[in-house]
Amino acid sequence: MAHKFLIPKNIISGKGAIQEAGTYIKELGTRALIVTDNIMVNIGNVSKVTNVLDNVGVKYEIYSDVNCEPTDTIVERGIELYKNNKCDFLIGIGGGSPIDAMKAIGAMITNPGHITDYMGKVIKNPTPPLVAVPTTAGTGSEATQFTIISDTKNNVKMLLKGPILIPILAVIDAELTMTAPPNVTAATGIDALTHAVESYTSRVAQPLSDTFALSAIKRIFNNLRKAYNDGKDFEARNELALGALEAGIAFNNSSVTLIHGMSRPIGALFHVPHGLANAMLFVECLNFAVEGAPERFANIAKTIGIYKNNMSDIEAAKELVSEIKKICYDINIPNLEEYGIERAEFFENIDKMSEDALASGSPANTIKQPEKQDIANIYKKIWG
Ligand SMILES: [Fe+2]
Question: Which residues form the Fe-containing alcohol dehydrogenase-like C-terminal domain (predicted)?
């Protein structure tokens, strides 16, 4: 079976990547719309990029209103700003939200109609050049063909897609992730780990996505605790940033599965941050999924060096699940109760969440396919 593999055209990574990026950015246009949030402006991450733009003579406008998960109205204001200022390319600086907003703004500069017209469709017309500068090691949005935008009229989180949404340039500079606080490092790091594990154990995994997924898993396992305990550890931050990029490339060319399918409803109903919701589900979802592909999970155990001689595949897979439990414990991932969710409210919503999870299509990519009842059981188990 043949496979297509998509990746950003240019990736600049490592120490000094932002400075290095100036020469490439200069080729992309003369006036950029920088899409970001207020925190990125206040902590100086935006000025690290604008200093480089000043040096190479590129002009820019700053749109720093992406202070929540992006909505259609945030995108519309961005389009207006882009047009009024005669911008000719875009730079997204931040976590997943500003980068997702940038992608949607770019798409609606060259595609007709309203952003909500594209739910469930592939966005076709090429965007102006998109530059992604991630400041968390998590979403992998810098490498993916997806953007998630909320439709504020219908209260729906739209998953929009199209290869044209893959940035032309991804700049992976761990210096910009150094200010992420421990709880953000933990949640985004587990999000990236989930991308890689799900990609590797998905029904639609392919040889090249496997390579990126396994490499990502190794980097994240070896460095997440270090970066959590010491945010100033540049080497650990750099490895995590590369791991998150690799994990993004992996699932962009494979898919996420049960965990992401089940975490979106928790995010939508209880406003649990995306990475945290994944972390809460990680162990119980794997307890369900390992039987479907023990050799795949065992391979992950071998990759991270926890496989012991004479273990069967299923024993190795279970060893992996307990290792994931340990890492979540070590980086203080709370459970639903500790996060402040009411038990009764959670249980009342299990039926709806199970339906929504299944309808998203992601659970069907798990090799051992879950029924609605399996999903409901997992929701019950994560309460403890
Ligand atoms: Fe994710």
Answer: 185-382
